[in-house]
Amino acid sequence: MKIHIVDYGMGNIFSVQKKLLQENISVTVSSKPHDIIDADKIILLGVGHFKKAMDNLNELNLIEPLNNFAITQKKPVLGICLGMQLMANFSEEGSSAGLGWVDASVSKFKTNDSKKFKIPHMGWNNVFYKKDSALMKNISERDEFYFVHSFFLEANNSQLVLSETDYIERFCSSIEQENIFGVQFHPEKSHDAGKTLLRNFILL
Amino acid sequence: MFRPRLIPVLLLKNNALVKSIKFKDYKYIGDPINAVKIFNELKADELVLLDIDATSKGKRISSDVIKRVGEEANMPFSVGGGISDMKDIQELIACGAEKVILNSHAVKNPLLIKQASEYFGSSTIVLCIDVKKKFLSKSNYVFINNGKVATRYEPIKWAQLAEEMGAGEIIIQSISKDGTMEGYDLELLKSISDAVTIPTVALGGAGNFSDFQSAYRLGRVNGIAAGSFFVYQGRNKGVLINYPSSEDIIRINQLT
Questions:
Q1: How far is B137 from chain A (nearest CA, A)?
Q2: Could you give the C-alpha distances from A6 to A30, B45, B114, B139, B229, in angstroms and in order?
């Protein structure tokens, strides 16, 4: 089993890498297209600006190997935070097209009560399941995950939604479509529930 | 349900864990990595690590220590102390830090906040505001260099400017309450929390659990941070790292 973390210059790779290595599996981290081709599973993470992330993936010639991996070969991919959002068709952040793997778009949180609901949504919150998933095995709706984001994914197809979370309104906090998984929260920063999720992804 | 975060603040001096009273009287607490391990066991929401004399010594919080924290921590953590440019931020994020905390260098160069938040994303950039009254003055001002140097900024004005520049969160620290364990400066917390739309974090003065409730309900903050509360136990302030249970934490935003 070889898991590859795509390094495209956006965000905190060290924490995810460290948590995976604790599970005694082989982990590669690079921006090289051939490491995507060689991998069994891929983690696409990221923090920061959507358009900049797409631009980086483009410049590094990673979009084609990623599409091939996720869509043609249908091998497992886990998107974390911005990494999940990139799987959508489009984002308001920089008015940019995404990878288009799932029928969804990304919008910014909006609120009329900015004293009650600060943006970003930053902190611990629960997830409520919309379907069963091997990714969430042994994780209860009482368990909390750590979130930090100002944008959220809106699915056009409700079948895509794996879980929802309450902040301002109920939003999609994770997705699953065949081999494609995405979580808005940070499993690598979410104590035991996060560890369980990463282990579940390894065991898929 | 979304709830306030409860955040232990670990102060580093020469890479050892210390605790101060009013930014003075440093007492040795122990080894920071050991403390992180204990907070893992106790399932702390988040950690803050601050090197308190980095700026004064013209240095920056040690990457070596933060890398070891990054290897251990099962929760998000943010780091501050002498961070002055984009390279510093890049290096600390590569060590596993979720967020970096700007303070003195952001006052000297507010454009650093803008530059950093545009590149790393707002949610990665935290501003810490250290506040006290100037000598013989009735109003609060922002202080830098570990509370030693007064600036011309009023706390609310500086918080609003930082938000405009792209800061994603503001830690509001009262210097005169630090280590006193007599309660937060609730008026200060509320005045800044109501003046910005980004999350705020209370720091300075927490002595008991009801102080956390007051900070959340009256101070209107989103995160509640403390130092002494999490490292001392009992009237004689014996060193014992502690953290409330998840059942207790839920009580912070429930009316009693």
A1: 30
A2: 6, 28, 27, 51, 41
Number of structural domains found in chain B:
1
d(CA B153, CA B107): 9
Domains and CATH numbers, chain A: 2-203 (3.40.50.880)
pLDDT per position as a tens digit, B22-58: 999 999 999 999 999 999 999 999 999 999 999 999 9
Instruction: Give B253's pLDDT tier (boundaries 50, 70, 90).
Output: confident
What ipTM is given for this predicted complex?
0.91
Relative to beta strand A2-6, strand A26-30 is parallel
Give the B-side interface with A, CB within 8 Å: 1-5, 40, 43, 45-46, 70-71, 73-76, 93-98, 118-124, 168-169, 193-194, 197-200, 220, 222-223
Q: Are B18 and B25 in contact (CB under 8 A)?
A: no
Task: For residue A114, give the nearest of B97, B169, B197 by CB distance.
Answer: B197
Given this model, what pLDDT does residue B7 score?
A: 98
User: pLDDT-derived band of residue A11, with 50, 70 and 90 as boundaries?
Assistant: confident
**CATH number assigned to the domain comprising residue B169:** 3.20.20.70
A121 touches chain B (CB under 8 A): yes
State the smallest CA–CA distance between residue A75 and chain B in angstroms. Answer: 28
Model confidence at B256: pLDDT above 70: no
